[in-house]
Amino acid sequence: MRVSVTNRAFLPLAAAAMATVLAGCGSQIADPASAGSTASSGTSCVDTSGSSVKVGFINSLSGTMAISESTVFDSLTLAAEEINASGGVLGKKLEVISEDGASEPTKFAERAGKLIQQDCTAAVFGGWTSSSRKAMLPVFEANDALLFYPVQYEGLESSKNIFYTGATTNQQIIPALDYLAEQGTKSLFLVGSDYVFPRTANKIIQAYAEAKGIEVLGEEYAPLGSTEFSTIVNKVRDSKADAVFNTLNGDSNVAFFRQYKSVGLTADTMPVVSVSIAEEEVPGVGLDNVQGQLTAWDYYQTLDTPANKKFVAAFKAKFGSERVTSDPMEAAYTSLYLWKAMVEKAGSFEVDKVQAAADGVSFEAPEGMVTVNGENNHITKTPRIGKINADGLIDTVWSSPEAVEPDPFLATYDWAKDLAK
Amino acid sequence: MKSLLHGRMGTAAGFTLGAVLLLGVAPAVLPAFNLALLGKFLCFAIVAVGIGLAWGRGGMLTLGQGVFFGLGAYIMAMHMKLADASLFGGSGVPDFMSLYGSGEVPGWWEPFRSPAVTLLAVVLVPGLVALVLGLAIFKRRVKGAYFAILSQALAAAFAVFLIGQQATTGGSNGLNGFRSFFGFDLKDPNNKLMLYMIAAIVLLLSLAAARQLMHSRLGELLVAVRDQEERVRFLGYDPATVKTVIYVVAAVLAGIAGALFVPLVGIISPADVGVIPSIAFLIGVAIGGRATLLGPVLGAVGVAAAQSSLSSTFPSFWVYFQGLLFVLVIGFMPGGLASLPALVRRRRRTPSAAATHEAAVEPAAAGAAAPSPAAPDPVSPTPAAPDPEARRKATTSEEVSR
Questions:
Q1: What is the mean pLDDT of residues B54-68?
Q2: Domain for residue A31, yes or no?
Q3: Is the pLDDT confidence value at A21 over 70?
Q4: Which letter does DSSP use for residue A281 in this model?
Q5: Do residues A395 and A288 share a domain?
Q6: Is A33 a member of any domain?
Q7: Using CA atoms, how far apart are residues A122 and A95, in angstroms rounded to an integer?
């Protein structure tokens, strides 16, 4: 055998390098309690000395989620322009740095790290899927930075580094169930995509149904992106349930509703309540397929509030009259204004001061007045049930009489005691 | 100069230079965020070393390395989740399990509480899976496109399986939020540097191992199997054994890379192990030069770095660019960028009118090869390589192995 010089030269080198590494290595965790307190190792590098301040937008501009998340990016852009036109925040213009999450959790984590550590942004806005939020959460906590997350989600989460401006379950799913119960619904069929939001939502629905005497006749999941629904729709039809609760996401809705219609089911005979179909998704799913079906959100483009009229007009003026506005877009737009209000209340861009000032900050949002709950970093929202009309927009058929306090862990609901251990 | 570069001393000098660059210069020059990114790229480079062996030298189009990468990564992630749960929670149950599952740790997680078992499993599990697969596939003489399709289907199935197990694998969320690595605090910048160093050292070691393998009798046999499998069989060797061994080596490298990826990047999800990442591993290797030692490494790091910097500016453009680059390389330069110097040399020898073309190509080639002065002469992956130098080399090492 040939003996190579390589190994002889290389091994001592490797050993030396290894020794250097181990000699220079940092703290081991001896006492977990003290390890937790060293959290703010990422000292903030935010530069507020100039006439502008950097903020980060992180949305999937490529990949499967791009079609939804680019709309959120648009409304964030609108909010930033409006704020800059009216003098900025604390007299400083917003300088937006945008990153692409590429619909991959790992990418979201990496890009969020860049926005915080390299770009030194004062706050970051965006994210859509639960997996993108879960991926970013430890990054924001480790660097002690701020994320504003604008989409309804499955709850059971609260971080001092994330502000949740979309609905949690008691502002969307539970009101929808209350509405159905009020309408005399005695049985439900649950259909969802197979990932964390539908699974958690359905766990909550099961618990609610058990407490309120509603029968759940079936719970079916389709893989994300699946377009094969004949089996599931046949099960739905045969169940003769009073209503269907739909937590499908994305393309699956197209196939589901097409199949639903083709077996003769209609909004009159068996209404479907969807929590992931907003104005933006209606054309994609096909207006024919979903007209008359129900949705549960906190905002619709048709809302008759002065703030909403202004928001819709500004959005259409900037992006075109054919564009629509939806709940996540409104929540994203609101999130930037809420951050502005927090910063102005704190008189500072520093994260800990903004966090301290957050409680009670409110904003006259397109959906109505929203107020930040400093305990769980969620905001008050007004749940609304909507019906998809002939124009592809959504009319409010029921609205909560007042804004609902966020309760991400459903602590105030007796029947939900076992859900959030 | 040239003889120095291609000699044994040159190889040693090359490794030393690589070590100085990775272990000395990079940590000194790069800010923490970029160093962590480089660490991630180095993980991809370790996978690429394995693909270079299996695909470049062995002709096995491994479209499913994400599976082995994922096995290593998830094993490490499970250990880190369990260790965190005992260190910080006290309950010993990872947070997501109580949120989405029964709140009990499934039995097949338990072995990974032990650091020793984890480290062994990171190597053994991908290795054993590849061994079983390799024997099953290669003994049946499945090759070419069928092997590629099979390995890709495996990657797809693996990702679907992971997504379906919300309560035990974290589903589409994957596993993340790690706070410690074998007792070391992951927030400490020194520990992050240590992780980077470990990745760099593992890469250097795997390069050294790959070089030894390439120049061993097995390495020669491997190239022979790639180019003329039947003839090797007639000579009395079993090509299936040769291929299986290399397939296992590539899988083990991917597994180790996955295990390093998790503490460095802080997350592993099905989106990192499915079909798309498996193909992405391959693209860097093809562009860099799959049959060479350093081509795959430089290609993997280069493509990952380009993606990282370009995809933010041109999010949708990047995918097309990557695809175009892949098509161009496969179509016009099957040997990858590493074959550029050889191509240029050949053109120079033939007095064609390619003078202007050469002038344009040379600096690029020099740039691509800059950190790798010790690249062994690229053996062209096409069987009829008219490169006398490579042929001479092959004969000498054949003599040695006898």
A1: 95
A2: no
A3: no
A4: T
A5: yes
A6: no
A7: 10
Residue to substitute from B180, B185, B314, B318, interface A, most A β-carbons within 10 A: B185
Q: For A148, how many CA atoms within 13 A lie in the half-sphere containing its CB?
A: 32
pLDDT digits (tens, 9 = 90+) for A208-224: 999 999 999 999 999 87
Range A251-276 burial, b when 16+ CB lie within 10 A, else e: bbbbbbbbbbbeeebebeebbbbbbb
Q: Is A228 found in the same domain as A162?
A: no
CB proximity list for A166: less than 8 A, separation 6 or greater: A149, A150, A151, A152, A153, A327, A328, A331
Tell me if A24 and B193 make a contact (CB, 8 A cut-off): yes
d(CA A167, CA A358): 18
Task: Based on the fold, state whether residues A139 and A212 are members of the same structural domain.
Answer: no
The domain in which residue A86 lies consists of 52-167+308-379
Residues A136 and A256 in one domain: no
In chain A, the percentage of residues whose pLDDT exceeds 90 is 77
Total structural domains within chain A: 2
Q: Does A42 map to a domain?
A: no
Give pLDDT tens digits for A157-182.
Answer: 999 999 999 999 999 999 999 999 99
Q: Which of A207, A190, A195 is nearest to A418 (CA)?
A: A207
Gap from B11 CA to chain A (nearest CA, Å):
7
Task: Give the mean pLDDT of B85-106.
Answer: 81
Q: Are residues A163 and A177 in the same domain?
A: no
Is residue A136 one of the residues assigned to a domain? yes
Per residue in B159-203, pLDDT (tens digit) is: 989 988 878 898 888 999 999 999 999 988 999 999 999 999 999
Question: How much is the average pLDDT of B144-152?
Answer: 92
Same-domain check for residues A140 and A239: no
**Per-chain mean pLDDT for chain B:** 85
Q: A244 — phi, psi (to 5°)?
A: -115, 135
Q: What is the pTM of this model?
A: 0.86
Q: Are residues A374 and A399 in the same domain?
A: no
- List beta partners, residue A297: A384
pLDDT surpasses 90 at A32: no
- How far CA A279 is from CA of A287, A316, A344, B131, in Å, comes to 10, 14, 33, 52
Same domain, A259 and A279: yes
User: What does the pLDDT read at residue B342?
Assistant: 82
CB-count exposure of residue A112 (10 Å: 0-12, 13-18, 19+): buried
Q: How close A206 gets to chain B, by Cα (Å)?
A: 14
C-beta atoms of A7 and B88 within 8 A? no
Residue A96: give its domain's CATH number. Answer: 3.40.50.2300
